[in-house]
Design a protein that fits this description.
Layout (H helix, E strand, L loop, with lengths): L1 H19 L44 H13 L19 H6 L5 H5 L2 H18 L1 H7 L3 E2 L2 E2 L2 H11 L1 H9 L14 H7 L18
Antiparallel strand pairs: 1-2
Length: 211
C-alpha cells in the first residue's frame, strides 16, 4: 500500500513539474493591448457632439448621421475642407458665399480654414432647410416620386445640392421638373442616393444661424 502511495505521488510530482514548463516565468502585460477604463473610445458613433466628427479619418458606410454627413462630403469635395471648385463653392460640403451669409457666416476665408466651423455650418443649414421643408417632409416621406422613395434625409441632401426651391419644384411636379446644379447633378440623384439615413435628431429651426 505504501509503495502504491509513493508511486502515485511520484507521478503527480512529475506531471506538475512538466506542466510548470509551459508557464512563463516572468509574464509581462504589453501596455499597448490594455485599455484604461477611463479612456474614451472615439470610434463609438454616432455622437451627439459635433466636434467628435472633425478629426474622423476612417470611412463609415452606416446609416447613422455620421455616415450621411461623410457620404455627402465625399460626393461634394472628396471630404476636403479647403476645396474650392470652379464655381467658387467652398469647403468640405461646398457652400456658396450667399448660403454662408444666410446662416450668419460672412468670413469665407475664415470658414475655409476652420474644419470645426464647416461641420457646424453643415448641421445649421440642415436645421434651416428642415424647417423650410417640414411640410414637404411630412407629406412626401415614404411616397414614391419618379421611381425614388422619398425620405427626410434625401430631401435635406437634395436641398443642400440645389436649395429648397429646387426640391419643392421637383416634388410638386411629381418629378417632371428635372432640377440640376451647374455640373448636371440632379435633385433626383440626391433624393435617391442619400435616402434612408438617420436625420431625425436634426432640429427644424427657422432662420437657423451659426453662433
Amino acid at each position: 500500500m505504501i509503495k502504491k502511495g509513493i508511486f502515485y505521488t511520484s507521478i503527480l510530482l512529475i506531471v506538475a513539474f512538466i506542466s510548470s514548463g509551459f508557464k512563463p516565468y516572468n509574464s509581462q502585460i504589453i501596455s499597448g493591448f490594455r485599455v484604461d477604463e477611463n479612456e474614451e473610445l472615439l470610434y463609438v458613433f454616432p455622437s451627439q457632439n459635433i466636434i467628435d466628427y472633425v478629426t474622423l479619418r476612417v470611412p463609415y458606410t452606416g446609416k447613422y448621421f455620421i455616415g450621411y454627413k461623410e457620404a455627402i462630403a465625399h460626393k461634394e469635395s472628396q471630404g476636403k475642407y479647403r476645396k474650392i471648385n470652379t464655381l467658387g463653392y467652398l469647403g468640405k460640403y461646398q457652400f456658396g458665399v450667399e448660403t454662408l451669409k444666410s446662416i450668419g457666416i460672412h468670413d469665407s476665408i475664415g470658414f475655409l480654414n476652420s474644419p470645426r466651423l464647416q461641420e457646424k455650418a453643415f448641421v445649421v443649414l440642415l436645421s434651416k432647410n428642415k424647417y423650410e421643408l417640414r411640410n414637404y417632409i411630412d407629406y412626401f416621406e415614404g411616397k414614391i416620386v419618379d421611381g425614388v422613395k422619398i425620405t427626410e434625409s434625401g430631401i435635406l441632401a437634395a436641398a443642400h445640392l440645389g436649395g429648397t426651391g429646387s426640391v419643392k419644384r421637383f416634388l410638386n411636379s411629381n418629378g417632371e421638373k428635372k432640377c440640376k446644379d451647374d455640373y448636371g447633378t440632379s435633385v433626383k440623384t440626391y433624393l435617391r442616393d442619400f435616402g434612408g439615413f438617420e436625420t431625425s435628431r436634426i432640429q427644424a429651426i427657422k432662420n437657423a444661424r451659426v453662433n
